[in-house]
Design a protein that fits this description.
103 residues; mainly alpha
């Protein structure tokens, strides 16, 4: 049992540099996401999501060539943004970073 504990301690001591590097890359990505402007495609799909929430019908009241999931993908950020009073662009970045962390 003592040998197994020593082996797991050695494995943990070897893993911390990789964990620190992963965390540093994640933080760098988060900072870069906050500093850049929202991509034009994301902004357009957020606009279409707002129109959808306002009652317009996709492909009838608004023109879009992407599949419906493209619009629906941004609805959680739009709904949460309305509820929290936060810009949906910020929440899109946050949700993407949370998905990366969860993976």
């Amino acid at each position: 049992m003592n040998a197994a504990m020593n082996r797991s301690m050695q494995d943990a001591s070897k893993a911390w540099p990789w964990a620190a590097l992963t965390l540093a890359l994640f933080v760098t990505g988060a900072v870069m996401a906050c500093l850049r402007h929202t991509d034009v495609d994301v902004a357009w799909l957020l606009t279409l999501g707002e129109k959808l929430l306002a009652g317009q019908r996709p492909y009838i009241d608004m023109i879009e060539t992407n599949p419906p999931m493209s619009i629906l993908l941004y609805l959680p950020a739009l709904i949460a943004g309305r509820g929290l009073g936060v810009a949906p662009e910020i929440l899109v970045n946050l949700l993407v970073l949370l998905a990366i962390a969860a993976s």
